[in-house]
Amino acid sequence: MTRPLALSALALLALTACDSGVADKDLFDTGDDTADDTADTADTEAIDADGDGIPAEEDCDDADPAVGGDEVPYDGVDNDCDPGTPDDDLDGDGWTLAEDCDDADPAVGGPEVPYDGVDNDCDPDTPDDDLDGDGYDGDADCDDRDPEAWTDGSYTGVLRAADVPGFCDSYCARAVVGDVRIEQLAASDLDDLRCITTVTGDFALRYSGSVTDITGLGQLSAVGGNLELFEVDGLTDLTGLEALAELGGSLLLGCYESDTRNNYFYCTGGNARLASVAALGSLGAIGEHLYVYDNDALVDFTGLDNVTAVGGSVWLHGNAGLTSVAGLGAVASVGGELDLYDNDALASLAGLSGLGTLDGGLSVVGNDALVDLSGLEGLTRIPGPLEVEGNDVLVDLSGLDHVTAIEGLVTVVNNDALVDFTGLDSVTEIEGGLLVGCTDEGTYYYCDGGNPALETLAGLGALDRIGGPLYLYDNDALVDVTALHGLSTLAGSLYVTRNSALASADAQALADAIGSVGGTVTVRENGP
Questions:
Q1: Using alpha carbons only, what angle is made at residue 410 by residues 407 and 526, rounded to the nearest 5 degrees?
Q2: Strand, coil or helix: 56
Q3: Pair 137, 130: CB distance under 8 Å
Q4: How far apart, in whole angstroms, are the C-alpha atoms of residue 229 and residue 299?
Q5: CA quadruple 184, 187, 192, 198: dihedral, nearest 10
Q6: Which residue, of 13, 17, 102, 463, has the greatest Cβ tally within 10 A?
Q7: pTM for this prediction
Q8: Which residues are CB-contacts of 22 (< 8 A; sequence separation ≥ 6)?
Q9: How far apart are the C-alpha atoms of 468 and 95, rounded to whole Å?
Q10: Residues 478, 472: Cα–Cα separation, whole Å
């Protein structure tokens, strides 16, 4: 009896264990209850394939550990896989964090913008107005970046060297109603004149060898009178005059007009180092004269290429280094004389090819490198005297081929290489007389040295009338004067004298061939 009781207790214990609420692993329990067994799977864990700590359902790219979750500003990564979400420039004002002092406020950022009333750079010490700190706001300041200038104005009178220091203090622009006459300026530059915009009278800088820089004239756009540079020996170029577009008077380089004698010029000393006038490119015309005297470093006129007219004379004297007149090609008219004197290196006049009108005489004197006058083909008349004297290598007058009339005295003397008058083939009339071997001294003719290589008067064959005298004097190689046998009228006297190679009979034949002689006839001391 004892054994059945023991089994019942064991069965009770087993039943109690099954009902304890702890899941067992009974191989025979297949019911759908809360207990686990070996056929159940473990609870499913959250998926994070890229291991970036963000569950797949929250990760926009669970294959890339670099992205996922919310956008993180300024890290350079598109965390939320949405290019429309800003990583930088969060306020959308166009400035990134590195440039934006407040990336949460679209009203500011970047450098300060003057005059907009906004503290763009979040720095109250950066001025928004009165940028130069001179006490004048931008709307009242003509230059809000220059603390020394805030107003415009004018000056009436004569501005002299003593007035130069501080002349432009407080001025952005200042017009001179009167003249600028600066002599013996001790400064090396003209920076104190930086505000001058116009001068109604003359602008003259004289006897100022210490001046090496005129860039201070950068605002000067118009001079109503003359522009004069006289003995400014430290100056090498005219840099600073690029804005000069109007010149009502003369351009005088090495000359100046007397202050007390109107239209009287002193030319006694040039600008020893002046090598270039290239800065004058804005100049379109010269109202009166172009005088260039004794500027030994000047080689040409490049810079005057836009000058189309000179209202008065062109006078080029004693410029030892001048090799050409390049730069004057646009000059179509000269309202006075064209004088070329003692320019020892001048070899060509080709730069004057545009010249069509000359309202005065033509003088070509002492230019030792000049072979002919090529470049003057545009001239059809010379309304004044023609002077050709002392040009050592001048062979003929080629270049004057289209001239038909000369309305003054023609003087041809002391040209050592001149062989004939080729170039004057179209001239039919000389109004004032023809002197070959003599010069006009005003009240008399001076005859002392002819043209030693002149063999013939070829080139004068079209000449019909001479309105004054005809002198043929001391031309030792002259053998042929038949070119003048067609001359119908000689209003003055005829002198054929001391031409040692000219047969006396040929000299007399010329006298006999001229249709009418209005004065005396002298034929003597010629060849046998």
A1: 140
A2: helix
A3: yes
A4: 17
A5: 40
A6: 463
A7: 0.76
A8: none
A9: 88
A10: 9
Query: pLDDT by residue for the chain (528 residues), tens digit each?
Result: 444 434 344 343 343 444 444 444 444 444 455 444 444 444 456 787 777 778 877 778 777 787 767 777 777 676 768 776 676 666 676 777 667 666 667 766 667 676 665 656 666 655 655 555 655 555 555 665 666 666 778 999 999 999 999 999 878 899 999 999 999 999 999 999 999 999 999 999 999 999 999 999 999 999 999 999 999 999 999 999 999 999 999 999 998 887 766 777 888 889 999 999 999 999 999 999 999 999 999 999 999 999 999 999 999 999 999 999 999 999 999 999 999 999 999 999 999 999 999 999 999 999 999 999 999 999 999 999 999 999 999 999 999 999 999 999 999 999 999 999 999 999 999 999 999 998 877 766 888 779 999 999 999 999 999 999 999 999 999 999 999 999 999 999 999 999 999 999 999 999 999 999 999 999 999 999
- 17: how many CB neighbours lie within 10 A of its CB? 10
229 φ, ψ (degrees, to nearest 5):
-125, 115
Amino acid letter for position 57:
E
Torsion angles phi and psi, residue 358, rounded to 5 = -125, 125
Q: Six-digit token pair at 34?
A: 């809360």
DSSP 348-383: B-GGGTT--EE-S-EEEES-TT----TT-TT-SEES
Tokens at residue 35, please? 């207990």
**Which two tokens mark 210?**
């210490």
Rounded CA-CA distance 159/480 in Å is 63
Q: Do residues 344 and 370 lie in contact, with contact meaning Cβ atoms separated by under 8 Å?
A: no
Distance CA 409, CA 468 (A): 8
